[in-house]
Structures are given as C-alpha cells and as structure tokens.
Amino acid sequence: MIHNLLKTAHDRIRTRWAALSIAICGLVVPAVADASEGANSHYLPGTVATMIDLVPSQPGWVIEPIYLNYSGDSGSIDNIPISGLNALKLDVESDALTLAAFRTFTQPVLGATFSVGAAVPYVWMDVKATIDTAVGTFQVKDSTSGLGDITLLPAMFAWKSGPWQYSAALSVFAPTGSYDEGDVANAGLNYWTINPWGGVSYNNAETGFNAALHGGIGFNTENSDTDYDSGTFGHLEGSVQQLLPLGPGFLTLGLEAFWVEQLEADKGQREIFGDFKGRTAGAGPVIGYLKPSSAGTLVVEARWLDEMETRNRLEGEYVWVKVVYQF
Questions:
Q1: CA 152 to CA 116: how far, in whole Å?
Q2: Each residue's pLDDT tens digit, 275-294
Q3: Which residues neighbour 27 within 8 Å (Cβ) at sequence distance 6 or greater?
C-alpha cells in the first residue's frame, strides 16, 4: 500500500498536495484504563484510530516503536477491584515502551492483503491506593517495571477499493507480564483478551484529507489468581487528518475521538461491586510528520487524548508517540 501511495505523493508534490495513508496495524501497551479488574484493560484509547494505525496493504516489513504515558485517578469511585483487594481510591502513573514488527505477504488471502505481527512491551508503573480491609483502611504505594503482556496479531486483512480501505484483524493479548495477587502495581493483567476488530478508511489523493473509523469487541478470560472475570467490552475510534507539504515530507494535523463501553458486568466480588460496568469517551489532537524515500517511509505521530466522560474506571489522559518505518 505504501509503495503505491508514495508514487501518488511523488506525482502530486509538485502541486503542493499529497495524500498518503501509512498502512500500519496499531498496537497497544499495558496501562491502567478500563472498568474491569483494577480499573484496567488490554485495550486502550488511541490504539487504532489514524492513518498510521491502518492494516498494511502492500508486501514488506514494518518496524514500529511505540511510547505511551497514562496518568489518571479514580475520582469519586468508591470501590475498585484490584489484585484481589478492594481499593477505595487509585492514583496511577504508567509508562510503556513497545517494539512491534509486522510482515505483509505477497500472496493475497480471501482477496485481501494478509499480514501477521507481534508487539513486546516494557512497562513502568507507580500506583497509590487506599485499600479497604476488614480491620480498616490503609494507604499503599507500589511500583513495578518489567515485561508486559505481549500482543499477537495472527491475522490482518486489508481490502482496497479506490480511495477506500476495509480492514479486519484479530488481536490476542497473552498474560506474559509479571503478576502477584495483592500487589496494586503489576506489569501484566494475568488473563487473556481476544479482540477481533475491523474498520474503514478514506484517503483523498487530491486534497490530502484522510478519515478512519475502527471498532471491535474484547473478550476477557478469568484471572486465575483472583477468580475475577472482567466483562466483555466494545470500542470505537475515529479520526480525521489533513496532510500538508513540509520540506521533503508532509505535516499531518488531525483530531481523534474514542468510545469504550463495557457490555457485560464483571464476575467476582459481586457482593462488593455489584453490576460493575465501565465507560469512557474522549478526544484529542493528533500531529505527525511523514517522510517518504526510495528506501522506505518514516512516520512520526504524537497524540494527546483526554478522557472527558467516564464511569466505573480511572479518568485521565493518554500521551502516545508512534514511530513507524516501513520498507
């Protein structure tokens, strides 16, 4: 996909407009975020939203380092299940650095370009919590760092039709990060998440305008240490972007919006937490730079996403920095 779009960009750069859709499958890194156990989830807002996150549609390799910072707190939530404990309040600062790689094959599958990929995250996390026990409440501070939960993408499909791309993919989050029951800061979540997702994107080669909409459903397995089953959730993310010629490449300016809704209540400690479902919605700006060359394409993108409306989950902000090299 990038090869064809780069040709289009080179043809149009003389007229000061270009439209490039960088075909990269977005990944996630662990952070405290959702309404499930620990107000936590494998899927995070900002995962798959803009043109840098699209499923690949041209044969080749993609290398993608990703940085994520999340800062948030539980606000007025009174009861949060975390690592077998009941937290009255949580305050979290989390950083993660992920290295991802993708391979797109020449042979089509089901009429689509077919790719596979994986991502390995390293996580740093500081957590402050007020823990409620039978003998009273206690203030707890905990920190951790180490390998997080690895993301596997065994199947990614991209269908092209003029300026449109239709995508489908499967993300599998494996519980490879360290986890200790009773610790409020853990590098892993100690359960699997199966997340099928798909989307549609539009690239106008005349004006440099891009738009994308992606959504999916995440199915969580039970945490075997705490016997807690985080409920199924749905997610939807959309973006609009404009590309502008700048030096040897293109400046990208845009806006992203997201929505995550827990569709099924958690199971476990229900006598304390009841019908525990969560929701978040928010938006934020996106800025990036794209530099095409004959050897490959380099893209850098940063986004700041503010959680504007939450229920039964932490509320805060995400800062993403994604760097992509496709060859």
A1: 8
A2: 778 899 999 999 999 998 87
A3: 47, 64, 66, 98, 100, 117, 119, 151, 153, 171
- Higher pLDDT: 54 or 136? It is 54
Q: Specify the pLDDT at position 11.
A: 44
What are the start-end ranges of the H helices in the chain?
2-12, 270-273
DSSP per-residue codes, 207-224: TTEEEEEEEEEEEE-EET
pLDDT at 138 over 60: yes
> Phi/psi at 263 (nearest 5 deg)?
-90, -20
Tokens for 307, please give them: 């959680």
- Burial class of 245 by CB neighbour count within 10 A (0 to 12, 13 to 18, 19+): middle
DSSP string, 124-185: EEEEEEEEEETTEEEEEEEEEEEE-PPEEEEEEEEEEETTEEEEEEEEEE---S---TT-S-
The whole-number average pLDDT for the span 218-239 is 91
- Given a contact cutoff of 8 angstroms between Cβ atoms, the answer to whether 156 and 165 are in contact is no
Structure tokens at 155: 């199947």
Q: What is the pLDDT of residues 296-316, one digit of tens each?
A: 889 999 999 999 998 888 899
Helix or strand or coil: residue 282?
Answer: strand
Rounded to whole angstroms, what are the CA distances from 318 to 41, 69, 151, 323?
14, 6, 19, 16
Among candidate residues 249, 234, 113, 103, the one with its CA nearest the CA of residue 168? 113
CA-based nearest residue to 64, from 106, 109, 29: 29
Per-residue b or e along 14-53, where b marks 16 or more CB atoms closer than 10 Å to that residue's CB: eeebbbbbbbbbbbbbbbbbbbbbbbbbbbbbbbbbbbbb
SS3 category, 272: helix
More confident residue, 74 or 209: 209
pTM of the shown model: 0.86
Which of 170, 119, 183 is CA-nearest to residue 147? 119
| Beta bridge mates, 215 | 198, 236
